[in-house]
Every structure is written in structure tokens, then in C-alpha cells.
Amino acid sequence: MEVVILEGAEQVGRVGADAVAQHVARDPRAVLGLATGSSPLHVYRELGARVARDELSLAGCRAFLLDEYVGLPADHPETYRNVIHRDLVEHVDLDPAAVRGPDGCAADLPGECASYEQAIADAGGVDVQLLGIGATGHIAFNEPGSSLASRTRVKTLTRRTRLDNARFFGGDVDAVPTHCLTQGVATILDARHLVLVALGAAKAEAVHQMVEGPVSALWPASALQLHPHVTVLLDDAAASRLQLADYYRETWSAKPDWQDL
């Protein structure tokens, strides 16, 4: 796990965009894993700026979303398909038809989960997966207690997660769906490169447990310790609980210019 502590959100966005761009440079048809939420927004803005400057093209890429609410109609502004369209797809040259998420309105939800797993496999797997982390250590909607061997499935959202997401629904927690479809922990770990972004002091304990704590279902993100290629991008506040913060800073400052993320 490569832990990179940076000065602020803009720098985190640039380094996160570097990681994506490196994969696309090697393979213009790279498969991207996209996360919603506030954590990856600076990465998406930087990707949009690079596409606008003709420094990068995502036109040949395909993308898969981590999760989706159950029951929100397709035209609801807070479906994750619509959120990723606003946050990224509108600002880059990625074909909207090449972006797929699980269908939270499918008549057969378990069947949809199995179909989504197969679609990722048929695409050759995800080359680079962007991730955020919740204050409880969840990745995607894998809440504490999730099996570390889990695959795409239906999950019940905790009260804490629904309260956290109520800001996207006008502050009304009752408007937040109670269930979702989410890639499992094992599905996420199948991606070849994981890039996790965490910003702010509210994420500091979860980051500490993910990086330096034991691998445990109590902190699902700790399973990333088992992956061979993880890049963790943090600002100072999110890194404030790390016991080895000085070591991580030293390692990053000594990184050769020719070495990819």
C-alpha cells in the first residue's frame, strides 16, 4: 500500500488524475472503476481539465460504477448513474454508453447483481478503480461487518450512512433509499490498481484503521492491505492519525520521477 500525503485537495486531484492517465497512456481502452461522493471530485475536475487541454482522452475507455440505490427512478437526480454523468462524463470525452452501473430498479435484483459481476469479467476486469472511504471504514456500500469475500449484492444501508447521505436529498433522511446494490469487497479487490482518496479529519480514524490496523470486517477498507497495488491519497487532516506519517512522506519524496504510481 503506497500512502501519499499531500498538501491539499487540489494536489490530491492532480496525483489521482496522474494515476488514471498512466493507465490510459498504456492502454487507451482501459477499464475505469468510478466512485461517487465528494472524495473523487477533485480527481474528476482534473481529468476534465486535461481533456479540455487535449492532454488526455478517455474516448476509448469503458467504466463501471461501484454501486447504486435500489428503487430510485432512472430520471432521479441522485441515482449514481446521473451523479457520475454530472460530475465526470459531461466534462470529458468518455462515451456515456460506455459507462455502466448496476440497475437498482431491476425486477430481479440478485440476478442483476450476478449479471453485473459477469459484465465486469467480460470487459477483462477493471484496470484502475477510484475509491472513497466512509467514516466507518466502508468502501462502496460495504458497511462494517461485510464479508471480505463478498461480491456484488443487495445491501441494507445503515442509519449512519443514510444520515450522511441525506444532504443529497434535501436533508430528508426518509427520502434516502434503505437498500442499494454494491460491488462486494472481493469484487473491488479484483481491480488491478486501487486508488483511494480521503480528505478531512472526519476520515482520519478510518484511514488509520485501513492502513495500520488489523484486517477486519469491522473496517472493510482494511481489506485493501491484501491487494498488491493500492495508492492512498490523503491530505494532512485525513493523515493525522497515521503513526507512520513521517515514513510515508519520506517514501513519497524519494520516489523516482520515472516510477509510476
What does this protein look like?
By secondary structure, the chain is an alpha/beta fold. The protein has one domain: Rossmann fold. Helix content is 31%, strand content 16%. The protein is built from eight helices and ten strands. A seven-stranded parallel β-sheet has the order 1-10-9-6-2-3-5, sandwiched between helices. Strands 4-8-7 form a three-stranded antiparallel β-sheet. Strand 9, helix 7 and strand 10 form a beta-alpha-beta unit. The longest helix has 18 residues. The chain starts with a strand and ends in an 8-residue tail after the last helix. The mean pLDDT is 97.
Write the layout of secondary structure elements.
Elements lengths: L1 E5 L2 H18 L4 E4 L6 H12 L9 E4 L1 E3 L10 H8 L11 E2 L8 H14 L5 E4 L21 E4 L2 H7 L13 E4 L2 H5 L3 E6 L5 H9 L17 E6 L9 H9 L8
Parallel strand pairs: 1-10, 2-3, 2-6, 3-5, 6-9, 9-10
Antiparallel strand pairs: 4-8, 7-8
Protein name: Glucosamine-6-phosphate deaminase
Function: Catalyzes the reversible isomerization-deamination of glucosamine 6-phosphate (GlcN6P) to form fructose 6-phosphate (Fru6P) and ammonium ion.
Catalytic activity: alpha-D-glucosamine 6-phosphate + H2O = beta-D-fructose 6-phosphate + NH4(+)
